[in-house]
Amino acid sequence: MPNDPARQHQNPQPGRDLRQAGPVPVLPAQRQEPQPPRPPYAEARAHRVLDRPAAAVWREVGDFPALAAWHPGIASCTAHPDNPRVRDLVTTDGTRLTEALHARDDTAMTLEYGFVAHPFPVTDYRARMEVNPEGSERCSVTWTATFRPVDGDGAALAAQFGEGVFAVGLEALGARGAPGRG
Fold first, then answer.
1. What is the rounded distance in angstroms from the CA atom of residue 114 to the CA atom of residue 144?
2. What is the pLDDT of residues 110-139, one digit of tens each?
3. Integer Cα distance of 109 and 158 in angstroms
4. Rounded Cα gap, residues 169 and 66, in angstroms
5. Does 12 score more than 60 pLDDT?
6. For the structural domain made of 42-175, what CATH number should be given?
7. What percentage of the chain exceeds 70 in pLDDT?
8. CB of 52 closer than 8 Å to CB of 70
9. What is the pLDDT of residues 51-106, one digit of tens each?
10. With b meaning 16 or more CB within 10 Å and e meaning fewer, what string describes 129-153?
11. Strand pairing of 74-80 and 139-149?
């Protein structure tokens, strides 16, 4: 029977009856509380002009799992056996971290990578290395990173990365091409 009251409470026709029913109530567990604003990004940066040809420097910088070969603060750097775009690092003070290569451009001589596992109070860490020719026997190298600090403005961490990691590495990279050195 078309007007049978017992049949009126059966499942509605898909789409039609639900649209007519009005807004769906939000249960307390489904409510979204306002989120605090995310901290702004901080940036670490180091830049050096090296008395070395850009191609020679790029061969070292572009070899992602070979960081320990030229950076004095890295005791070991190994590629993951199942993914050469991921490297495990141990610093000279014993800090362990894992980084993943996101992009590499041999023509532009740039690479970008980020943290996978690390002990630092940061999120959204993304680093970039760029080698630019400055004539046939010189180049400039810029190493930057952006990240969101967990606490504060990130100035101390930016200085730690920029001066304590990036600048130290770039100085060592430049010294490798100096007369009488490796």
1. 11
2. 999 999 999 999 999 999 999 999 999 999
3. 24
4. 13
5. no
6. 3.30.530.20
7. 76
8. no
9. 999 999 999 999 999 999 999 999 999 999 889 899 999 999 999 999 999 999 99
10. bbbbeeeeebbbbbbbbbbebeeee
11. unpaired
Give phi and psi for 157, each to the nearest 5: -70, -40
Residues 6+ apart with CB under 8 A from 81: none
List, as own/partner pairs, every contact residues 102-107 make where C-beta atoms lie below 8 angstroms and the sequence separation is at least 24, other chains included: 102/126, 104/62, 104/64, 106/58, 106/62
| pTM of the shown model | 0.77
Beta bridge partners of 142: 47, 130
Helices vs strands, H then E, count in the chain = 4, 7
Question: Tokens 């056996």 — which residue?
Answer: 81
Buried-exposed string 18-49: b where 16+ CB fall within 10 A, e elsewhere: eeeeeeeeeeeeeeeeeeeeebebbebbbebe
What ranges do the domains of the chain cover? 42-175
Q: Count how many Cα atoms sit within 13 Å of the Cα of residue 96 in the half-sphere of its side chain.
A: 2
Euclidean distance between CA atoms 140 and 57, whole angstroms: 9
Rg from Cα positions in the chain: 27
pLDDT of residue 116: 96
CB atoms within 10 A of CB 10: 8
